[in-house]
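[READ THE FOLD]
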Amino acid sequence: MATLPSGTVTFLFTDVERSTRLWEDHPDVMHGVLARHDAIVRGAIEGHGGHVVKTTGDGFHAAFGTARDALDAALSAQQALTAEPPSQGVSVKVRMGVHTGEARARDGDYYGSSLNRAARLMAVGHGGQIVCSQATADLARDALVEGVVLVDLGEHRLRDLSRPERLFQVNAPGLTGTFAPLRSLDAFPSNLPAQLSSFVGREDDVAEIAQVLREKRLVTLTGVGGVGKTRLALQVAAEVLPRFRDGAWLCELAAVRDPAAVVDAVAAVFQVTARPGMGLEESLVAYLGDQELLAVVDNCEHVLRPVAALVTAIEAACPNVRVLATSREGLGIRGEQNLTVPSLEVPDDATSPEAVSANEAVRLFVDRAQGAKAGFAVDATNADAVAQVCRRLDGVPLAIELAAARITTMNPGELARRLDRRFRLLTGGDRTAIERHQTLRATIDWSYDLLTKPEQRLLDRLSVFTAGCTLEAAEAVCTSDPIDRDDVYELLANLVARSLVVADDTGTDTRYRLLETIRQYGEERLAEHDETDVLRARHCDYYTEFARTVRSHSYGPGQIEWGARLARERGNLDEAMAFALATQDVERSLGLLNSVPFVYLQVDDVVVFDPTPVLALPGAVDHPASAVALMIAGWQAWTQGDDPGALDLLEQSLATEARLGPTPDSHLAMFTAYLRSAVANGMGAEREAVDQMLEAARHARADDLPAMTAWYLGGAVNNLGWLDPTTALALAPEGLALARQAGAPLAITLNLLSFAQALAPDDPDQARAMLDEAFQLEATLGYLDATPTFVYAAGRLGAWTATLRAASRTLKHQLRSGAATRVIVAGVMNLAARGLAEDRPEPAAVIQGAVHAVLRGVAAPTALPGLAVPPEPTAVVAFIAGARHDTTQLLIATLGEPRLRELRADGAAMTEDQAYTYARAHIDEYLAAGDRDSDG
């Protein structure tokens, strides 16, 4: 074999799209077609100075000395394949990925992250498409032949979970120029976090676990701390993500101390809240019932029993949910498949640099060492020492990473000697007695002992942050002897450099976090210094003040930005409340509960505390702050369908404030008026709902809250737009002007939609302009309004594409929270059916039938004290009825009455969640296909 290029190498990976299916359908023809394919691709590679490293199934892996040669070979092959005539009607489409990076050749093959990167690029493309990385594009751009263009496809996350990579499509004459979106992680729903370091080794483990997940619904990865269970699980999730329609979701339990909070933590991932008449676990299982997803439940060992109970419930009711758990021991559930995660393979006695470098543990060591010291490599002078280090650390990934971080201050030989002395001391000289947990603990001890006293104490104190922290939070909570506030940043930087703290700068603020094993180590050290309670109290106080700050910004232009900050701190806020409740601290518990922004002012309703355990604390009902807690309890009762209970709690709230005095900045009268309006509106008492909304606006104005005044005026206009359009149009300009003046995005959106609804009958053009502005505002600021207001406003205008977009996210929110009444969501479903009726009549007919499933068991409104329910249908009900009639006429004309009845019956037979899931799936499919170019 000719000498393979080394150093900076450009790799080309190719693969035949849908080859398995082609072999199944045309086995005889495919032999000839693939032979021709192989000749074309091999000829193009070798004709442009490339080397075929290996063939992989129906694809090629090739290496080139220059980026231009690789792109020229890919273009040549793709053009020839495109021009190749079909054989007996069979042709192949080949996807190609090209990436340039550092790599080393050994025994006719390559190893290194650049190789994996090129394969990832190929995997996100489509048949007939050539995708290259920015590294390749930068090297080849100035040498491209005439007619070849690199089209910027933007940044994409690949399945190695690293930071986004800017990708380019190579266009040239004779090639298809338009493809579906790349199949990167961004194309699938998930919350899999970006990883700041590359995934090294374990290719066989990933493949094995992915295969087991096809056969088993619950797979648990077990192993000692630091062996890499979490990172392996995340990589598997990224690999199998395309299998799951509803994505892959990380449910992190490391920060959960209270076993009873397991359900809360998992529900928070899916943004599920308790539905009316249901507990949280029941609501979560109901939501997941029709989902097709993978749940990665991470760090279960300290809450095994509640995790096992929840997973058992999910398995029983959610047939298309797979669970991949990580734990130091199995969950003990029937049907569970336990897979032990081994340490990385370590080098044998071979000492040649090539042999050592090919080893998994060494590859990890080198990768992390290069992150600390650019240019580090295994060579003849250090190969034996690096091998010794990896062997001494038993291939435990965390231990290897900690050791590699020391490469800036010690060479591999010094590392090996230091480790030998350390372990000889720990084991009485018997090296064979070293166990993995001893190795890990010893390595952390070793790294810890090399820190200065202030660095050690900062590491200990950082353990109270269960969800990482900002620099500001670390300064506030961790400052006390021997740490000065001004020194915190430098101390953090030192801990980051030693791989003891991870710095994540992918968001607006850099966040610092400890790996879970190191956080637990820090907790132990913190307890040794008798600082645990002091630090947790300081942590609780900081996050109470943080929540109060977020709440103050929730009334103004910073709603979205501060809402996102609140979401990032959910774990710390939960931990703060857990501490306050565990210590029965009424002051702290009520303070934190009342500081979190009211639920409808949050982005995606991300942080909601249950007021019940807070109000149950000794002395809570006699604390002035309990008035606000009672109001929050009233809101919770309303969301669970208990209207009488909600009104009763509101009365208790106001009576408590009258008895004990007002709580500063509680705005109790404003919030209770709004909640009364919500109850009245749900009962069909529209006039009372408007009056209470205007009462809330009056209190907001008196409290000098212009954004909230605008919000409530928008709510009043929304109701009046159906009830009394003339009055609505007279009031609408004031609310919109005030919202714009305040600069509050949520208030601006609500007022635009409410104004649009009022204008729709007489000035549809202006109404559409307002609807478009609302959508644009959301797109610009990156948030989604999940209320039915969008759906009704767009539907009233006949803007069916907009109606369907808003309906999809409303149904998604409903699946998670059950926050809207089923009558309102039934209206959303009817308008969605109307939006689909012309182009997708059969799904529209099923959705029409599914409305009956949504309304099954809904009783007629019953008047509550002081709420008069009108005897005639409201204007909203009449509008929905008219839309349903129009839909029915369209469907009869298209499908005929017998088929319509049949399809409606299919929908009516669904459960409520199945109805929502079915509607969302067909709406999203329709919107993705782009069948409708514009709204009619």
The longest strand covers residues 94-106. Residues 425-434 have pLDDT under 50 and may be disordered. The radius of gyration is 31 Å.
